[in-house]
Structure prediction request, 245 residues.
Amino acid sequence: MLENRHIMITGAASGIGKAAASIFAAYGATLMLVDRDDRVRDVADSLPDAHSAIADITDSAAIAAIIASFPKIDGAFNNAGIEGLGGAMLPITEYPDEEYERVMAVNVRGLWTCLKAQLPGLQANGGGAIVNTASVMGWLGAAGMAAYAASKHAVIGLTRSVSLEAAPHGVRVNAVLPGAVETPMLTERGFKANPGFADFAASVHPLGRIARAEEVAEAAAWLLSAKSSFVTGHTLAVDGGMSAQ
Ligand SMILES: NC(=O)c1ccc[n+]([C@@H]2O[C@H](COP(=O)([O-])OP(=O)(O)OC[C@H]3O[C@@H](n4cnc5c(N)ncnc54)[C@H](O)[C@@H]3O)[C@@H](O)[C@H]2O)c1
Prediction:
């Protein structure tokens, strides 16, 4: 499905990005895996045709240099993100301003930086596809997670706006909106910081469980492939029916 595609994945050291690396590799892609966590090297080493770079997505010079080091770019899965406060939930009145700034810096400014760096190469290649990881919290409010929800609403705004700018150049831009996903963000941080949240998270998905990271990565693979050739500016919920309620 992704043969001969050169695809960049951010946040590839863990969770959804790591699962995407395996799945995109199985579909034939050549990968550039980016993360600020050096475990991204191990992920690249375990796969055929995968290169890695350690960088923060808010560092525009580093991101531009990584893209320049890659022979070409046909696609990107802009997936790196943070939940803020190590998964703890706090109302806006108690939420530290510095943490709000950090969440927005990574989830919004970091995505902005990647999109800006990726688009010229994709357009120069005559087309391609980008998928951004938002969240169902890009559609819904979330008590205790206002900064995160605001950042994911912004991911959808960026996705839709940039899809319009990129369409004349043959570049499609879409977003996946996961519900709760079994990754370290949730199982090692969110569930530990919020007792009882694991059962609650499963119960709000009509399918009765949280997602596996691979289920989100498969949706991203489809949006990056030619099989979704007339889909752009779309927000695809991968949420077990949560947002249908
Ligand atoms: N897990 C969930 O329930 C869930 C639900 C909806 C959306 N998401 C989104 O999915 C994406 C992936 O999350 P995950 O669950 O796999 O989490 P994760 O914490 O397991 O993985 C996120 C990866 O992103 C990297 N990263 C974070 N900030 C970075 C930065 N500034 N520069 C470079 N790399 C950075 C981390 O080092 C980590 O490897 C995020 O955008 C997250 O908001 C997750």
User: Anything to note?
Assistant: The chain has eight helices and nine strands. The CA atoms of residues 79 and 133 lie 5 Å apart. The longest strand covers residues 171-178. The pocket of nicotinamide-adenine-dinucleotide is lined by residues 10-11, 13-17, 35-37, 56-58, 79-82, 106, 110, 133, 135, 178, 180-181, 183-186 (CB under 6 Å).
